[in-house]
Recover the amino acids of this structure.
């Protein structure tokens, strides 16, 4: 029988601070465990304390631990917290993302992995460029074979562990062409020493599966494998973990099947169920105490997700109070909805809230436009979470492409990006001629350019200058500090002079980004240790991995706008979930196919982002793809217990939700886009109905109210659906019966009340 070791005095207070379920997970015997960690239940805390427990109490060597997560941010946080708990440096520990761990392994065993020592990582943008070149070389027109779709196909095959040669011909022409493109793409990557993100994982998996010495080495080394966000693992990642664990490795997986929302990326929530079958004796521990949200929010989330049948099951709870009720608003259209959101924001900002306390979540990116329009008009600072990161910006990628070409002349993607950036008189015709020479000779574009000579006509001299530039950079920067290499590259390439010639704020921003790139390179100026890369290749790998992540940059205090998928892992005091209507959320495809479980999990994720106050809203009329559509409340609203919700009354006589059983809505006073909620919460009922309820105290604009029936001399009769501006500049949007929706100047429209 397992006897827990005596507690180290240094770690005893840390363990005592855990709740019972967390303590059970952290101090469990060194056997397979699946920790079902609900939203806000402290999963990262459990993971890092488990590592500290293994090292400080079980006397496991830090070198025997492999800890894997999905984002660089999460990996950095994990490393920092482990270092803080153990008070030892963790640089030599294998703690990182799946891609980062795979990259590290391939750098150490490049020969066994059949890669060149200085192989380069293709980020998503460069991969797309390469696929476009491949399609052109195969005479596959982009109109028929969109590069994005072909790239997605290639990545999907790799995520499933399939090489081109393993794909059987099923007699389907389209599939045959895609396999042809995949084959040509892989040949090009092999010859140029390029590895895309999916290839990192596939190559590392094959290395561990097919090379007995490597497999034996890592199975003996990594006796304890800890995995974060286990519900997001795909087929290949799970297979890799199984190979690494073997028969003797101990797997400690932390995840939440209720937050599995990335099936479109290849994530397999069923891996959580498979775990118990593939790792016999796996014990399940549930973390259900929530430290984020109020009791009301958790009750709503629990009731919603309970409708999913294929789940392992848990029930979130909190020791904190019930909190404020969820507010539900039925808007007339998307403008009314946006005005409600912004005016509610102003109420919170007039209190003690900061801009960054406020987040708006939506199902589709297209929903942000109207919200942005109203936020701009109301002068509220905002940002779209998930915008371009530093390493994704054009000028930064250009400078890094020069570095990559200096490091690896056979990198065709970097060659094409830099050869005429800035412009050197090397046009598309010359590039196409080089491609032809490269294809015929089976060489890289660089080798083709070196051997082409006068065959390129007038461009030959310009091309020779470019080749001399790269060779000179390689010669003059050898042995120099990385920041100096970066500075010389930016100067000699002409990038700095190019942007200095431009005018305006954008040019200034680009120059600042180039300067910041030099600053960023300085943090890599240290002698490499043991299995580490040299500073240049380490920096290039860091840039490629960071660019592939797509997380938002920290910025000024501002309202946060984001998709529900982007919101995972975040939390905010006040959350607005907009567009909660059938056809939008859940989306129409899910409704048509009856596949609602992932959409419901996405709704669960959205609800559990809120800490103190949650607003839900839907529009009865919404313009989708340029067409006005009549909406209905999302079926997910029926899953939320009515006692958790208070209705915020709309501003005019329009369809609005009402609780059955005679419950009342709030509506003590107009708040400028909805009413303040000061009345008692509604009693428990059977769900939501739709009733037409006239409201007489909505504000008037030029004598007209939202929802009023009007007549226009040209367009006929219609309904007022929104107002913009004030005074003589007020614009009115009217949905006419026969003429569609028109936006008119109220002072000039000569509308008559019907």
């Amino acid at each position: 029988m397992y006897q827990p070791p005596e507690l180290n005095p240094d770690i005893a207070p840390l363990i005592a601070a855990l709740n019972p379920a967390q303590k059970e997970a952290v101090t469990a015997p060194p056997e397979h465990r699946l920790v079902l960690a609900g939203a806000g239940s402290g999963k990262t805390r459990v993971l890092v304390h488990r590592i500290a427990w293994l090292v400080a109490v079980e006397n496991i060597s830090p070198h025997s631990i492999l800890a894997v997560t999905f984002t660089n941010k999460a990996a950095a946080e994990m490393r920092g917290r482990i270092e803080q708990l153990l008070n030892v440096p963790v640089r030599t520990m294998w703690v990182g993302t799946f891609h980062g761990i795979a990259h590290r392994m391939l750098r150490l065993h490049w020969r066994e992995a059949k890669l060149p020592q200085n192989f380069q990582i293709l980020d998503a943008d460069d991969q797309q460029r390469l696929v476009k070149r491949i399609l052109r070389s195969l005479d596959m027109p982009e109109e028929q074979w969109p590069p994005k779709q072909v790239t997605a196909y290639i990545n999907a095959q790799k995520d499933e562990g399939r090489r081109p040669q393993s794909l059987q011909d099923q007699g389907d022409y389209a599939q045959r062409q895609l396999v042809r493109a995949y084959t040509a793409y892989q040949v090009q990557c092999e010859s140029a020493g390029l590895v895309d993100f999916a290839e990192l994982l596939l190559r590392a998996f094959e290395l561990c599966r097919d090379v007995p010495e490597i497999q034996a080495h890592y199975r003996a080394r990594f006796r304890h494998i800890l995995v974060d966000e286990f519900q997001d693992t795909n087929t290949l990642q799970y297979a890799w973990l199984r190979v690494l664990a073997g028969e003797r490795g101990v797997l400690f997986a932390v995840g939440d099947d209720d937050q599995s929302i990335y099936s479109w990326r290849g994530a397999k929530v069923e891996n959580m169920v498979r775990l118990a079958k593939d790792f016999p004796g796996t014990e399940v521990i549930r973390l259900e105490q929530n430290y984020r949200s109020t009791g009301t929010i958790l009750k709503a989330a629990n009731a919603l997700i309970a409708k999913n049948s294929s789940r392992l099951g848990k029930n979130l709870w909190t020791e904190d109070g019930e909190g404020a009720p969820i507010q539900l608003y039925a808007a007339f259209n998307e403008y009314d909805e946006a005005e409600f959101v912004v005016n509610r924001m102003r109420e919170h900002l007039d209190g003690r809230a900061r801009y960054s306390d406020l987040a708006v979540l939506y199902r589709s990116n297209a929903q942000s436009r109207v919200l942005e329009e109203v936020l701009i008009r109301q002068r509220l600072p905002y940002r779209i979470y998930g915008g371009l990161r530093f390493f994704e910006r054009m000028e930064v990628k250009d400078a890094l492409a020069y570095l990559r070409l200096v490091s690896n002349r056979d990198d065709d993607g970097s060659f094409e990006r830099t050869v005429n950036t800035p412009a050197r008189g090397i046009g598309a015709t010359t590039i196409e001629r080089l491609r032809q020479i490269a294809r015929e000779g089976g060489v890289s574009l660089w080798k083709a350019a070196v051997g082409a000579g006068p065959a390129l006509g007038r461009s030959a001299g310009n091309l020779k200058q470019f080749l001399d530039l790269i060779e000179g950079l390689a010669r003059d920067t050898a042995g120099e500090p990385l920041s100096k290499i970066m500075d010389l590259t930016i100067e000699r390439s002409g990038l700095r002079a190019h942007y200095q010639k431009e005018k305006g704020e954008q040019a200034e921003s680009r120059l600042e980004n180039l300067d910041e790139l030099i600053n960023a390179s300085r943090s890599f100026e240290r002698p490499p240790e043991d299995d580490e890369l040299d500073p240049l290749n380490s920096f290039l790998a860091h840039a490629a991995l960071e660019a592939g992540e797509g997380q938002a940059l920290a910025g000024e205090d501002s309202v946060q706008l984001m998709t529900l998928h982007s919101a995972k892992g975040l939390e905010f005091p006040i959350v607005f979930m907009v567009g909660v209507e059938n056809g939008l959320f859940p989306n129409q495809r899910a409704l048509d196919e009856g596949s609602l479980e992932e959409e419901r999990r996405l709704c669960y994720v959205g609800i559990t982002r809120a800490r103190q106050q949650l607003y839900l809203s839907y529009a009865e009329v919404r313009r989708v793809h340029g067409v006005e559509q009549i909406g209905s409340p999302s079926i997910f609203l029926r899953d939320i217990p009515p006692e958790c919700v208070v209705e915020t009354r709309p501003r005019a006589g329009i369809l609005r939700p009402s609780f059955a059983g005679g419950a009342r809505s709030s509506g003590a006073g107009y708040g400028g886009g909805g009413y303040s909620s000061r009345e008692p919460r509604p009693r428990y009922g059977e769900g939501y109905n739709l009733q037409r309820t006239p409201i007489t105290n909505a504000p008037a604009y030029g004598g007209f109210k939202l929802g009023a029936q009007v007549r226009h001399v040209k367009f006929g009769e219609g309904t007022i659906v929104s107002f913009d501006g004030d005074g003589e500049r007020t614009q009115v949007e009217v949905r006419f019966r026969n003429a569609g929706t028109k936006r008119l100047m109220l002072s000039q429209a000569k509308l008559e009340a019907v």
Remarks:
- The CA atoms of residues 125 and 392 lie 9 Å apart.
- The two ends are 84 Å apart (CA to CA).
